[in-house]
What we know:
Layout: H1 2-7, H2 12-31, E1 38-41, H3 44-54, E2 62-66, H4 75-78, E3 86-90, H5 99-103, E4 110-116, H6 128-138, E5 141-145, H7 157-160, E6 164-168, E7 180-184, H8 230-246, H9 248-265, E8 272-273, E9 286-289, H10 293-302, E10 308-310, E11 313-316, H11 324-335
Parallel strand pairs: 2-3, 2-4, 4-5, 5-6
Antiparallel strand pairs: 1-7, 6-7, 8-9, 9-11, 10-11
Helix pairs in contact: 2-8, 9-11
Amino acid sequence: MMERSRVGAMNYFESWEGMRNRVADRFGELINAGADELAFTKNTHDGINMVANMIQWKSGDNVVLNDLEFPANAFPWAHQRRHGVEIRVAKSKGGGVYPEDIEALVDDRTRVIALSHVAFINGFKQDLEAVGRIARRHGVLFVVDAMQSVGVVEVDVRRAGVDFLACGGHKWLLSPLGTGFFYVRRELLDEFEPPFVGLQGHDSGLLTGFTMEWNPHKSARKFMTGNINYAGFAGMERGLEIIHGIGLKRIMERVQGLTSQLVKEISNLGVVWQNPLEMKYRSSTLNFTVPEVDELLKRLEALKIIVAPRGGGLRVSPNFYNTEEEISELADAVNSF
Length: 337
């Protein structure tokens, strides 16, 4: 914003476009996608809504979801009931929803399997590759909400066969609110038309005169409308620099070490873990509960230990910058409760 104040309308778009291209490249590296497959958005909702509203639905079509989803990956699909779409919900078992639970709901009228890579409630990590194989076997679209995974958990859209992916930047990407990405598999770019259009998605760039001709960009940029949050994405560039500077593998190892430490150190017999503890299903987030969970939350808040009440339990989400000492402080507080 200081740059805009200093130079006004002179040349700042060119420098901002350079920044935007760098951000797209670095984000693409995190999920194994090309910059041409990425559109800039404000949040996860934008991307999921994009898919849900550009499918040509027929009455009787269905979408397979699960009961661990955040509203960003639930409301846009539920809204399609107005077109006669059935919403099928796989029920979680022991804090997890497994590929076989999802496939059991798929039939010849299923159009979409949509799920979160990591569940916001308890950190359950879905087997994306297994679900991707199910989607390909049945010829349905595979849509992923990666809000709780990109930046702290490995994501490979090619290996998993993901068709569309959406995420916001303000969590594990260390970025400001109002930033996000929408991934479209390259082979689908010509198959789908955006439900909303605007100048950013026009093929000829910045127009100088009035026109009624819509010429969509050849890349995923065609799914964009007006100006993006340039200041926010400048912040994302710094966040991505930190992530790539440390290395995703090192971040994953660090966070897995911290979550494993917490599981090991909590000895309170009243604690019930609300997520599967097998490493295959573990992410950067854990969730546990106790009989008087609201009172424990108050105690932790008084100790300035920040956790989030979710699903009747307490969600703990350490990142690489947290310390072993902080994890021990949390465990001690729970053990003495």
